[in-house]
Design goal:
Blueprint lengths: L1 H21 L13 E2 L13 E2 L41 E5 L3 E3 L2 E10 L2 E9 L5 H14 L5 H5 L11 H18 L1
Parallel strand pairs: 1-2
Antiparallel strand pairs: 3-5, 4-5, 5-6
Length: 186
């Protein structure tokens, strides 16, 4: 009977010690001490790694991390591998953003940009002054320099475009509408 009691007490103490030493995920071993268990009757010594009630706790031997065996490492060790790569590239969202109509002395100017992700991929003048042959010609110069997938807007990715000589008002109106579209796209 005594042997059975000692075996059960030893098994319970050993299991409890393992549970405490292992701890929950995210908690290291060093923070836990094994639980105190009562000494079995009959003067037998408790299993290794357990303490008896009323006895001073034993000092734990510490081993430098570099010399520990894998089973002695804390359960909080994190994997140092790189994040898992996904097989599909994220889709770039393509959207059209329209700036406001900006009036000048020659007519109205309105710009629309096409944005893919965070890049401007196209710019289009939706409205340009065309009241006279001269304003129409200057509007074509502004449109040719700024708009399109190879225009200054796409090249510079901003509203910082060069002023077209002879079309200062139209150039400025184009920049203002363009800047508003860029601000809306953010």
């Amino acid at each position: 009977m005594r042997r059975a009691l000692l075996a059960i007490t030893g098994l319970a103490a050993g299991t409890t010690a393992l549970v405490v030493l292992k701890g929950s995920p995210g908690v290291g071993q060093a923070a836990h001490e094994p639980p105190a268990v009562a000494a079995p009757s009959g003067g037998a010594t408790p299993p290794a790694g357990t303490a008896t009630l009323g006895a001073k706790p034993r000092a734990r031997a510490t081993t430098p991390a570099a010399t520990r065996t894998p089973s002695a490492r804390a359960t909080t060790a994190r994997s140092t591998s790189a994040p898992r790569a996904t097989t599909a590239a994220p889709r770039a969202t393509t959207r059209r953003v329209t700036g406001p109509v900006v009036e000048n002395e020659y007519g109205n100017v309105q710009v629309q940009i096409v944005v893919s992700g965070t890049r401007i991929v196209d710019a289009v003048a939706l409205e340009l002054p065309q009241e006279t042959a001269q304003s129409d010609r200057r509007s074509e110069q502004v449109d040719g320099r700024y708009s399109g997938p190879s225009g200054q807007v796409v090249q510079r990715q901003s509203a910082e475009v060069d002023t077209v000589s002879g079309a200062t008002a139209t150039s400025e109106s184009y920049r203002r509408s363009l800047q508003a579209a860029i601000d809306r796209a953010r």
